[in-house]
Amino acid sequence: MSFFGLDCVRKKERELERKLRANDREYNLSFKYATNAIKTSKYNFFTFLPLNLFEQFQRIANAYFLFLLVLQVIPAISSLSWFTTVVPLVLVLTVTAAKDATDDIVSAICNLCMIFFPRADLLLLSSSEPLNLVYIETAELDGETNLKVRQALPVTGDLGDDIENFAFLLSGEVRCEPPNNRLDRFTGTLTYAGQKYPLDNEKILLRGCTLRNTEWCFGLVLFGGPETKLMQNCGKSTFKRTSIDRLMNVLVLCIFGFLAIMCTILAIGNFFWEMNEGSQFTVFLPRQEGKDAKFSAFLTFWSYVIILNTVVPISLYVSVEIIRLGNSFYIDWDRKMYFARNDTPAEARTTTLNEELGQIKYVFSDKTGTLTQNIMTFNKCSINGKSYGKKHSFLLDFSFNPLADPRFMFHDHALVEAVKLENPEVHAFFRLLALCHTVMAEEKTEGELLYQAQSPDEGALVTAARNFGFVFRSRTPESVSIMEMGQQRSYELLAILDFNNVRKRMSVIVRSPEGKLSLYCKGADTIIYERLHQSCSKLMDEFAGEGLRTLALAYKDLDEDYFSQWKQRHHEASTTLDDREDKLDQLYEEIEKDLLLLGATAIEDKLQDGVPHTIEQLSKADVKIWVLTGDKQETAENIGYSCNLLREEMNEVFIISGNSPEDAYALEHSMELEFLRTACMCKAVICCRVTPLQKAQVVELVKKYKQAVTLAIGDGANDVSMIKAAHIGVGISGQEGMQAVLSSDYSFAQFRFLQRLLLVHGRWSYLRMCKFLRYFFYKNFTFTFVHFWYAFFCGFSAQTVYDEWFITLYNLMYTALPVLGMSLFDQDVNDLWSFQHPQLYMPGQLNLYFSKKAFFKCALHSCYSSLVIFFIPYLAMNDTVRDDGKDVADYQSFALLTQTCLMFAVSIQLGFEMAYWTAVNTFFILGSLAMYFAVTFTMYSNGMFLMLPSAFPFIGTARNSLNQPNIWLTILLTSILCVLPVVTYRFLMIQLCPTINDRVIFKVRQAKAAPPPLPRRARIRRTSSRRSGYAFSHAQGYGDLVTSGRFLRRPAVSRSSGFAHTGRTTTGFSPMGRSAGYSPTGRPQNVKVNDVEVTSLQMYRTMDHTL
């Protein structure tokens, strides 16, 4: 059953295996599998109000004010009208409820707008396409936009589209794995007509995929509703809270304790007053029976809990959410973070972490697609020990090949000559590239080929083979057709040993037209080396020092008898339901032995524009950048030098090889502290050969022991765990789908935008939030402390010093907009100066703007201001008369004078807090003061008193008091005394101990807000030689698809996101690296400087001396 949308059903036993029978409803219902109903909204019409109120009152502040409302209903306790608490509470609850309802409606609409087809996880039975193929797009599942293929079993595909055949002839039984969240695998069997058939992921249509180029298909429902793999992956993400949020929770609890102390002091004061002075009033104010001084003190305690409730600001959380929402819009609207080439703007996917962007200490970055473009170019290769691909030679002319890709570029004529001379090793090399892959080819017109590859590496390699005369043309489930030097040849495709993250290689077994049986294999170099024949030498040192992604190619000839026996065992393993993957891996290991090395490929993945400058800027801001990549050590190290992460002056480079025992145990519990201690001693950290799980473990390790704010940035599905583990996750929308973006808190298209996100938006958001909190606590504490001092002059009777309407409107109307205006528009320096002086970012890392110490200073300042605001008017009105000789020292005049002094004091203090005045800020401050006087004169008018005498008792107080010169002189004196210590303290601090902010602001004023000079950047030259390596970039799943008949037999509609051509293009990026010259001003930066600032600490000291 369900109550208010909360699942109250007892958790059923864990399902070990799913059993289904086609056309047997009674049998299937006996297992009580989930229906296909899915609830994506949080509320409905009937449950919204109770559920939302229940959630809101779980917040301490809201529950506290509800408790106050109950106290105010008790006449013996409350000295305030009910509306002083009800109005603020209802407003806060309403605003929050409206926000929650809007979010839930938008979420539901988004889910309704997603056209999911199919609506459940299905076993594909038949389709309208030849060989029962189905073409699907899985962008909603894994972010990939390339077309994928699924194919039904032939035994069910023969049933066609006749519904009667399915109803009467299909009577098979499916046994498969229980519901899980694995999108890349499926294990099951179909028993039909006495035969058992294996089921894998390539026969399944998942909820969330979209059919393309397919008229119809039939399927058997395996998982429905919440049991579908899509919904299994929709688990709740960890709720991320900022460090300021956690500090605020602690401070609110401290405020509660301080409130209890103040109320206790005043209750004790009431007890002694009643004992000493109260007895004198019993003549005309007799006490009720049984109510003595102790009971009076008890009631006074709760009365002051009500009066001093403003020390716990109820509107604080709502104001914080408004500020965060506004600063999120600034990120969404920032044109300087918009990437026009892909039409991709920056996006703040969360509104709760903006100020945390100004406190980042550690950045964990992926390499491929994050620092680099993930656009692969075939640059070099090594064949039979000879290297090809001279960097500075002329471009090759491929006019001899009519099927060549005109955008492919290569620089070594010797390789073309070797191909034309029919060098057997060279031909075997490119034959392997043309055969060993899972690329789909589409040929709309003769000679115009379009390749759809699941990874950029695959497309680059097949395109390279195409240009050198080995053109992949088409494929069927049983064959691969290629054009070898103008001659059409068809190879029988016997098996594909598919890629996965553990194997890091893929192989194909083919039979040539001459009947020769061969296995071709390509993969990561370390993996291939372990499987080479003893006679082979390892020729992988050809591409040292260039940061290229390398891939080893090998082959072996197979014996017919052995392969027949191996094929039989392969079929048996593929039909088993238990440990299918392990058994298949054992068979793959068995046949992939004693390989002969053909050579290696070297693919260049260029740096993105502006990466070196961005890393340089963040380093100056004392942000530690760690690169976590699955690539080989040498490749990662060379990219580190290219992007200025590593420099030549770093004489000692600490390295742990990916195959060493130290690396294997570095993240173990016993070694993690030593690993972290060693890494933190380094100026730069690059972790290579790491898995997605290890990336998340490194992030968690730093979070656990360093107590620093972390940020993880990546572009691929293998970065999702790291992005979710960090305090802030940033996704880059690149070539590897949208999974990283969908899991992130912020997203944009280029790594270089990270510096603007942190140094500008992050720093401003943190500065604004800290100013807001300091001022918010100041104005509320000052307001409340005046009540505390007044208690000593009113016999601790719980009488309020202000008018009740002023108490109600103080936070809601009089002081709300000015502080929001400062929190949304304030900035100490503009974005150009923020880039010019990255050291401005450091105070946020050290929590200098808001901390427990800053909160204590704010409380002391409020205490002083409240003393001035109470005692100056009190002394000024004591024994004072008006111009006409009448007495002005009445309670109502004193209340009006005190609250007016308070309004001027907090408004002037806000003016001192703001560093950036705008028309909006000015209007808010002056408008709030004007609103205060307008409302005051209206509520204190004769008309309002005649309408509701009990609600508006201050009749004529405003016009009778504010026309006196001594009243305005008192307001002026109070305001000056309130701000005088602030002005004095700030003047002395700027003169004696100026901060980096003070120095930069002074420099800005000297420059009269002119744009800063272009920053000088050091040109780093490097001549060292480093080995390069490559972690095989590929995905599992296409091998079985090709061999089992799931192929692109007939031309399909091409997709713009599919792989078309590889190589350098005329519309590519501008030259990158240290010569890219990216700057926030958009002007080139090519000025030489002699010295390089080594550490951020030295830079900081340099700034102190030079500014």
TrEMBL record:
UniProt entry keywords in alphabetical sequence: ATP-binding, Magnesium, Membrane, Metal-binding, Nucleotide-binding, Translocase, Transmembrane, Transmembrane helix
GO cellular component, one term: trans-Golgi network
Topology relative to the membrane: Multi-pass membrane protein
Gene3D superfamilies assigned: Calcium-transporting ATPase, cytoplasmic domain N (3.40.1110.10), HAD superfamily/HAD-like (3.40.50.1000)
Region (Disordered): 1057-1090
UniProt domain P-type ATPase N-terminal: residue ranges: 21-86
Coiled-coil region: none
Biased composition (Polar residues): 1057-1069
Domain P-type ATPase C-terminal: 741-994
Binding locations of ATP: D366, K367, T368, E458, F499, K522, R549, T629, G630, D631, R689, K695, N718, D719
Main location: membrane
Record-given protein name: Phospholipid-transporting ATPase
Protein's organism: Sphaeramia orbicularis (orbiculate cardinalfish)
Lineage: Eukaryota, Metazoa, Chordata, Craniata, Vertebrata
